[in-house]
Amino acid sequence: MISAPGGCHAVLIQSTARRERLGPPREIYDLPNGNKRLMWPTQPLGEFTTAADIDASGKVVTVRQVLNENEFYKAQIGMWTKKDVLVNFGRPVETSYFPLMKREVWTYRYMEANVWYMMYSFYFDEQGIVRLTQKTPDPLHDPDRRNFATSSDRRQAEKALAWTDREGFCVWTLDRIKAAD
Description:
This protein is an alpha+beta fold. The protein folds into two domains: 2-65, no CATH class; 69-180, Beta-lactamase Inhibitory Protein, Chain:B, domain 1 (2-Layer Sandwich), CATH 3.30.1450. It has helices at residues 16-22, 69-72, 82-89, 146-149, 154-161, 177-180, and strands at 2-3, 9-10, 27-30, 36-41, 49-54, 60-65, 94-98, 103-112, 116-124, 130-137. A hairpin with a 3-residue loop joins strand 8 (103-112) and strand 9. The longest helix is centred in the middle third of the chain and has 8 residues, at 82-89. The chain starts with a strand and ends with a helix.
């Protein structure tokens, strides 16, 4: 039995090796049906988040990887809120704000079809409602930038991904970062 923060107790995984690998959940959310969702994200540099839904009696209902296109496509434009996105996918790897669009953006790393490194973004209006989603290649794994993205200084790569120009637009070209530092 694994004890999780918030008094949630769940028999999650029979295998001791798996329990040791996952450790205690890093995120716990209450679901509308009274169940709890326990999450083990690998963000900021990983592409996977394991989620286990636990019913009120502590029984495991489902265990799955939630950062994938099938899960993302369940998001309903004009209906889902920030809370819905948070409960379904956990904390984003990156948040940004585009003042001209008046949109806050939450972005998640994931693997599409277990082959392509991608980023999936949710654009929220001022009321916190999803108005747009977008998927793009993950610049951290761009083959044209392989020497930079695979350098020993991964923090510098993360900083480069989050750089924003003076007008508030996100700049994804990594070549300009050295001049900005």
